[in-house]
Amino acid sequence: MIIIKTLEELDKMREGGKNLAYIVSEVAKACKPGVTTNDLNELTAQLIKEKGDSSAILNYTPYGAKRPFPAVSCISINDEIVHGIPNEDPKTLVEGDIVGIDIAIVHKGLIVDHATTVPVGNISHEAKKLLSVTREALQAGIKEARVGNHIGDIGAAIQKHAEKNKYSVVQGLCGHGVGREIHEDPYVPNEGRRGDGDLLVAGMTIAIEPMFAIGTGKIKTASDGYTYLTKDGSLSAQFEHTVAITERGPEILTKIK
Fold first, then answer.
1. Which pLDDT does position 72 carry in this prediction?
2. Count of C-beta atoms within a 10 Å radius of residue 77
3. Residue ranges per structural domain of the chain
4. What span, in angstroms and rounded, lies between the C-alpha atoms of 256 and 61?
5. Domain 7-252 annotated CATH 3.40.50.620
6. Residue 213 exposure: Cα atoms within 13 Å on the Cβ side
């Protein structure tokens, strides 16, 4: 069931989104050679606490998982697409890596979700292009998040941008509704057809999160049970915003104003 948020709930999500945008930006700045994924997770925990919020993913057990998620952040490097565990067998960042940072927090009882992928020092031309194109695809999807459009319009815009730039949409992973729960209806695929799927109405809040790969887009799961990787070992990138559907157009909640 799609949950329509009240005006009061949207105000709280705006506050939380501003906090989360700051947290993600600070963690992104810390992604330098020699820093470990556990360092980034500890920084995330510190920043969340300073804002008076709590993690939405620590100890969260998604459907089908065999254990709760053990960290306050998902840190994914290079061919790791999403849900990398930063504090079990921590990795040290090296020059040329690209690092996905995915964090969700609870602010006054409501959840917001935000992700970015950043370079560690100097990165290859192909990695720079992947980050740029995936970021652009997020904006293309957000532009379609308007009252009267459909979920399929968002996916179609993202898919078109991937294909135009000869990248693959990562298979089997998608965005979602968010707010009262971390994963709500509707699912927000990164591919689709215009006019398909649920109608977008004012008060919906969704996490739009394109994930692109240089290779085929096929995925596999690591032995930790959470980390998704590209099956062919190719680079991948993820960008995500929590977006409110309003009569005035899409409103990005997880953006530093």
1. 98
2. 22
3. 7-252
4. 29
5. no
6. 24
